[in-house]
Hints:
With 289 residues, the protein is mainly beta. It has one domain: Thrombin, subunit H (Beta Barrel), CATH 2.40.10.120. It has helices spanning 46-49, 52-55, 268-288, and strands at 18-20, 33-34, 41-43, 57-62, 67-73, 79-82, 109-112, 121-129, 145-149, 172-179, 182-192, 194-198, 202-205, 209-210, 217-222, 225-237, 259-265. The strands form 3 sheets. Strands 1, 3, 10, 11, 12, 13, 15, 16 and 17 form a 9-stranded antiparallel sheet that branches. The protein has a 6-stranded antiparallel barrel with strand order 4-5-6-9-8-7.
Amino acid sequence: MFGRVIVQNKLSVFTALLLGGWLVMPGGDGAQAYVMGQDDRQVANDEEARLPEVAQTGIIEIQDGGYVTGILTGDNCDVVISAGHAAYYWRDYPGKDQHKGTLRGGGNFLFRLQPAQHGRGYAMTLVKSGLEHTANLADDRQDWSLFRLSEPALPDCKQIAYIRGGGYCSGQILMPAYHFDRRDTLMVDRSCTIKDVINHEILVHDCDSKDGSSGAPLFCRDQAAVTLLGINISGITRKKLVDPGEYGKESRQFNYRNHKNFAVTIHGEFLQVLEAELQASARRKLQRQ
Length: 289
């Protein structure tokens, strides 16, 4: 599927061919993979799996058959952060009755941790998305969503620390995510870097991604501290895609070249809505006790 134009002036040189929005759609219409050279995605190891920031990364299942990645947070373990196009169609899908600017799946979303172990799915409702405003559908800076679970997904969880306005990381970048070729397996790229920070709103990174990884968190791990930098949203390539495999098949080879991936930072309205929802989550926990 062809993605949105990023409205940042610094990025406008890349808009000749923009492939964006890693959400898996039934009957996907594009061969998308953003793997730079060698595929560095690895199954989360035991030490990483014990990190709350990794363990609280799950799948958002959408009634239209698609899915994306999301990160669980909040004192009450009932807030999920993801991409804006997890919630809204950013373009029309002919023949599928899926229209630009409308709520995906009729607003029916499930959040699931550990799908490989058939973890329970929790119903959730959309709190707010930057893409609910029609004027924002073409703006990657607004590609964020916050959801509220119908009940806590865990008896106890960590409130994820985040950096306002993103930034560079002096430690290790981690991106845990779910991808279409390993749909139920949490994969981590621990070999990627932040290439650029644009106006404290967009991060340019090279974490390896495939469809389904929209909404994945980008973390900075600096010794014992793990901090959320931004949310993975879209990618771009400036060369012809080479794909000898078949879309949706694990046999597909990782030989895409000259790509860049983007993440939206926690800034502006996104920051305001997140802080308000985290406060509300803390109140819900008090009411539950």
